[in-house]
Amino acid sequence: MALRQIREIGDACLSKKCKPVKEVNQRTLDLIEDLLDTMYEAEGVGLAAPQVGILKRIAVIDTGEEYQDGPIVLINPEVLETDGEQTDYEGCLSVPGKVGRVTRPNYAKVKALDAQMNEYTVEGEGLLARALLHEIEHLDGHMYVEKVNGPLLTNEELAELLKEQEEE
Ligand code: NI
What we know:
Elements: H1 26-41, E1 46-48, E2 58-61, E3 72-83, E4 86-91, E5 98-104, E6 107-113, E7 119-125, H2 127-139, E8 153-154, H3 155-167
Antiparallel strand pairs: 1-2, 2-3, 3-6, 4-5, 5-8, 6-7
Bound molecules: nickel (II) ion.
């Protein structure tokens, strides 16, 4: 198990377009393992290679939802289809301690390669759709903060706001 340092917003790696993966070698497999270790350690639901300073089109996701059979490894992912709309608070391990309200499609279907370079598709709604689209945007140098409507909040501010809304 190896943890990698998570780059934070403002780091040049987070605004670069990442290169497609042509072959999976031991270094690639180590990177995937490290991405998973780093994501779980930081209690995130997704992590993309540029967030640890590697400009390759690789990301991992684990939303922890019951139907999801372990972590999703995305190599060279492409969005095939989106549908619907959802608005919710979203965060990113590269923007620690903050969340912002983002509107995204409620459904996403994605084509990608797995760690054995086999093509597969993954589709999801709600949180999984949000995570898929969020991670794929990282690979093109984009961050959710570009899409936020309203202020970035701390988790405490969000809890406060939700409490106020409940009381209304
Ligand atoms: Ni992120």
